[in-house]
Amino acid sequence: MMPLVFDILTLFPEMFQGPFSVSQIKRARERGLLEINLVNIRDYSPFKHREVDDAPFGGGGGMILRPEPIYLALEAIRERRGGKLGPVILLCPQGEKFSQRLAWELAREEHLVLICGHYEGVDERVRHLATGEISIGDFVLTGGELAAMVVVDAVARLLPGVLGDERAPAADSFAGGLLEHPHYTRPRVFRGEEVPEVLTSGHHARIARWRREESILRTLVRRPDLLSLAELTEEDRKFLRELKQRIEVLGV
After folding, report:
1. Predicted confidence band of residue 172 (pLDDT cuts 50, 70, 90)
2. pLDDT tens for residues 108-157?
3. Is 150 within any annotated ligand binding site?
4. Cα–Cα distance measured from residue 226 to residue 210, given in angstroms and rounded to the nearest whole number
5. Which long-range contacts (CB under 8 A, 24 or more apart) does 80-88 make?
6. What residues are paired with 13 via a beta bridge?
7. Ligand-binding site membership of 141 (annotated)
8. CA-CA-CA-CA torsion sign (65, 66, 67, 70)
């Protein structure tokens, strides 16, 4: 199987060394499931002192990433890949909010280019290069590097062979529109709090139903906005109606 290849355009490639050199990302790279190329935008600056930014037309604070180095970097990547590029994603606060659904879509690609914005932003003409824009939340970071790390991690763990249990991603929070159920491990009793009896019963059907109902309950309490998009069975919907009735009776 061919690896998923990430080309990440950044001003600070050294920021990625720690996160991409440990845990699942490290193992995925070592096993040939994932390839990450860090492309220093400064290396493609056509200017004498490797400048990559300039003051904005019209005035205002901050500096803007110039288009030339980014265009040249992408052209070099395209040439290296025989004229073909996968989706080109600009990481910026104005993009589509990143989600598990979007992570699954990106995990089906063979090649992804991530452009890390920085300073006050990028020249608007850089957006013409992008096939999509992603934001990891409604807040502003110093640059797109941290967002790129989040995207790579979320996508990489969905690749076949990266996780020990191939079924794990399907049970994650947001996978089916619900938050994940509670987890317990040893000891069975800790400081007076006992593991729910059903989890030690050995009854797999009861355990599965308990976990499903706990996911629905947790989603209703913490993220009720997700329920309208969740993949619910008729049994799930019945349980949800009963939950809402109980909450209404209790007045909470």
Report:
1. low
2. 999 999 999 988 899 999 999 999 999 999 999 999 999 999 999 999 99
3. no
4. 20
5. 81/111, 84/111, 85/111, 85/113, 86/5, 86/110, 86/111, 86/112, 86/113, 87/111, 87/112, 87/113, 87/131, 87/132, 88/113, 88/115, 88/129, 88/130, 88/131, 88/132
6. none
7. yes
8. negative
Q: Is the pLDDT of residue 81 over 60?
A: yes
Question: Tens digit of pLDDT for each residue in 82-108?
Answer: 999 999 999 999 999 999 999 999 999
Average pLDDT over residues 161-178: 71
What pLDDT is stored for residue 164 in this prediction? Answer: 66
Measured distance CA(56)–CA(53) in Å, rounded: 9
Q: Are 230 and 178 in contact (CB under 8 A)?
A: yes
Q: Does 233 score more than 70 pLDDT?
A: yes
Q: Is 136 annotated as a binding residue?
A: yes
Active site positions, annotated:
93, 120, 157, 172
% pLDDT > 70, the chain: 95
Q: Which of 31, 11, 38 is nearest to 152 (CA)?
A: 38
Closest-CA residue to 52 (of 36, 71, 65) = 65
Is 236 known as a binding-site position? no
Cβ atoms 122, 90 nearer than 8 A: yes
Name all domains of the chain by residue range, CATH numbers in brackets.
Answer: 4-156 (3.40.1280.10), 173-250 (1.10.1270.20)
Q: Are 10 and 37 in contact (CB under 8 A)?
A: no
The amino acid present at 94, given as its one-letter code, is: Q
Q: Cβ atoms within 10 A of the Cβ of 16, count? A: 20
